[in-house]
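Q: Start with the shorter request: fold the first protein.
A: Done. Sequence, then structure:
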Amino acid sequence: MILIELFVPPGVFDPVQRRRLGERLIDALMGTEDAHAQPVMDSARALTQVLVQEPAAWIAGDRHPVDPADPPRYLIRVSAPAAWRKEMSAHAIDRLTQALAETEVEAGRDPDRLRAEPHALVHVVGIPEGSLGMCGRPMGSLDLIQRMTAPHRADIAHLPTDDLAPGTVIDPVCGMTVDLNATDLTLEYEDTVYGFCNGQCRRIFADDHGVPLTA
C-alpha cells in the first residue's frame, strides 16, 4: 500500500479542486513509461490512497505564518515499503512536483517557483518491513507485490512478444519489459531464460515454480 499525504494551506482549494489534485498525484506517481502490465498497474492504484489535509497552523522556517494570500506552499509525504523507497524516490519527487506545477498553471500562478524556491517539499518515507498492516495482518513489500500480481500472472505469461526488441523479455510476474543485457536478475526454467525488473519479482517466480535461488 502507498499513502500520499498532501498538506495545503486552508481555503486555497475547494472540494472539487482537492479531489482533482489527489487524482493527479496518483496519476503522476503511477506513471506509464515503466510499462508494467495494465492490470498490475490497476491493482497498484487500488492500493494507493491520497489524503488532502489543511493544517490549522502553518509556520515557515522564518517563524512567520504562511499567508493564505500568498501562492500556496505544498508538502507531500509518500509512505511506502522501505524496500521501495530508494527506487521510488528517483522518480516520485520529480513527478509529484510536476503534478503540482500543472495545478499552478490551471490556477494562473507561476509554476516555476516550485523548482526555484522551497515551496513544494516531497518526503518519501520507507515503512520498515512488518510495520505496514492490511487485511488485519502485517504486509511486507513481497506480500504486496504478490497481491498486486497474483490475479494477472497467468495472463502475463501469454502476452505477445513479437514486437519486443532483441535481447528483451517480459517479466512474467509484473509484465514489465526487461533488457537481458542490462540485468543479472534472471532465472532459467524449463529451458527458458526469464528476466525480472527487481529481485522481488524474481523471488515470487522462483517460489511459484520451485526454482532454487542461489543468489
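Q: Next, the second protein, separately.
A: Sequence, then structure:
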Amino acid sequence: MKILMPVLFCLLSFPFMLSAQSADVLLQKVSVTLSAGQEEQAVSLFAQAINANPDKSEMYYWTQVDKNSPVCVKLAQKLALYYKKSRNYDKAYLFYRELLQKTPNDVTFLAGYAETEVCRGREDDALEAYEKILQLDANNLAANIFIGNYLYLKAEQEKKQLDTDFKKLNAPTRMQYARYKDGLSRVLSNGYSKAKEYLQNVIQQFPSTEAQKTLNKIKLIEIEVNR
C-alpha cells in the first residue's frame, strides 16, 4: 500500500504537469509568431495556452506583451472571454476594464463589461455601461432589455413603498391621499414610462414575451394611477 500511494499520486499529477508544460510550449510559440509578425496565429496559440493554463497565460500577458501593440487588445479579449465563460467574473471585469481603457467606445467590450458587472451584483455600474452603449447604438437589444427591466423594477420598489406607507394610515386625510397620488404620478413618469420606452424598443426588434408581459403590467399601472 505504501508503494502504491506514491505511484497513484504521480499518475494523478501527470495530466496537470503535462498541462503546465503544454502552456509553456504554447506561450513560447506565441512569442515566436509575434516576433515573426504572424499575429493571427499568435492569438490562436494564446487561446490554446489559456485553456491549458489560464494563470500562466495571464502572467504572460502582463509581463511579456507590449501594451502598445495592436495584438494586445486581441489577447486581452481572449482572457476576458475565457474568464467570463468560466464565471470568474472578477478576473473578467479586470480584462474588460483593460480593454475599455484602450478602446472606450467599443460596443462589444462595453457589453461584455456590463454583463460581467451584472454577474458581480453591480447593477448601477452595468446601467452606466448600457447607457453608453445606447449612445453608440440606439437599437442595441441587450442594452434596451436591461435598462427597461432595471427601470421597471426600480419603479416597482418605489410604488410598493408608497403603497405600504399609505396603508399604514388608518384614516388618511385628503391631503395625505393627494400626496400619495402625487407620489404615484412621479413614479409613473420617472420610472414606468421610461421603462416602457426601452421595452417598446425591444418589441420592435424582437417578439419578446417577457417584455410584452411587463408592458401589459405598466399599462394596468397607468390606468390605476390616472383614474
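Q: Describe the second briefly.
A: DSSP finds ten helices and no strands in the chain. Confidence is low (pLDDT under 50) at residues 1-20.
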